[in-house]
Amino acid sequence: LARGGLARDLAGRHVVVSAGGTREPLDPVRFLGNRSSGRQGVALATTALARGARVTLLAAHLAVPAPAGVEVVPVPTAAALLDAAVAAAPLADAVVMAAAVADFRPVTTAATKIKKSRGGVPQVELEQTADVLAALVAARRDGQVVVGFAAETGDASGDALAHGRAKLAAKGCDLLVVNEVGGPGHPTGFEGERNAGVVLLREGGEVPVPLGSKEALADLVWDLVSERWDSPLP
Ligand code: CTP
Ligand code: CA
């Protein structure tokens, strides 16, 4: 299955990848953010480029450089990511949502820095952001492949994989890459060099992801996307 980027098998394809983590501003100097480095999304962009695709990278505060040769669209917030994704998707053969998108944002952003000297503790009211992946699925055209990522932990209501299956059903994307994440010291997921998990397929079935590099996972994702271009589901 793994072609390892030896062939330019994605030539003629245009793919859109989101990467990094959005930041939702509280005031001019503070934000609500997350720990995504953007490494997985950048690995997806790098491998797609190496395999001949045209790549648009929706970049949300990457901690690592974007590869030369991809079109980079900065998307600082969830709202900016939604706009850029909806704008880019109609011309894309695949859209991969590897970014960690804020689920909630402050209802208002203070125009000036919030000061302690004002007294009291600020109460921050949050509102939910739009679900970009759901918007992409709703607008998906024939032959387009939409991929989501989910970092899950097991809890009282189920293990990480059970949460992943429920999420795939709820989101309706073609592929969902599920990573089990742990706390500090866990070898996979946020900020690490390595990733492991399983890719869930919309029609059922799952492809295990061996513990390996983020590039290896990226190549596996493109292999599975490419298979769907070759044999679209009814
Ligand atoms: N996602 C998105 N827009 C959001 C939130 C998430 O497009 N506002 C995308 C992510 O990029 C990822 C997928 O949805 O590809 C799953 O993200 P995740 O945070 O796991 O799912 P949520 O639906 O936000 O559920 P929860 O965080 O409550 O588990
Ligand atoms: Ca979320």
Automatic annotation (TrEMBL):
Presence of keyword Aminoacyl-tRNA synthetase: no
Domain DNA/pantothenate metabolism flavoprotein C-terminal: 10-226
Gene Ontology biological process terms from the UniProt entry: coenzyme A biosynthetic process; pantothenate catabolic process
Molecular function GO terms recorded: FMN binding; metal ion binding; phosphopantothenate--cysteine ligase activity; phosphopantothenoylcysteine decarboxylase activity
Cofactor: Mg(2+); FMN
Catalysed conversion reaction: N-[(R)-4-phosphopantothenoyl]-L-cysteine + H(+) = (R)-4'-phosphopantetheine + CO2; (R)-4'-phosphopantothenate + L-cysteine + CTP = N-[(R)-4-phosphopantothenoyl]-L-cysteine + CMP + diphosphate + H(+)
Involved pathway(s): Cofactor biosynthesis; coenzyme A biosynthesis; CoA from (R)-pantothenate: step 3/5; Cofactor biosynthesis; coenzyme A biosynthesis; CoA from (R)-pantothenate: step 2/5
Family: In the C-terminal section; belongs to the PPC synthetase family.
The protein's role, per its UniProt record: Catalyzes two steps in the biosynthesis of coenzyme A. In the first step cysteine is conjugated to 4'-phosphopantothenate to form 4-phosphopantothenoylcysteine, in the latter compound is decarboxylated to form 4'-phosphopantotheine.
Name listed for the protein in its UniProt record: Coenzyme A biosynthesis bifunctional protein CoaBC
Species assigned in the record: Motilibacter rhizosphaerae
Annotated gene: coaBC
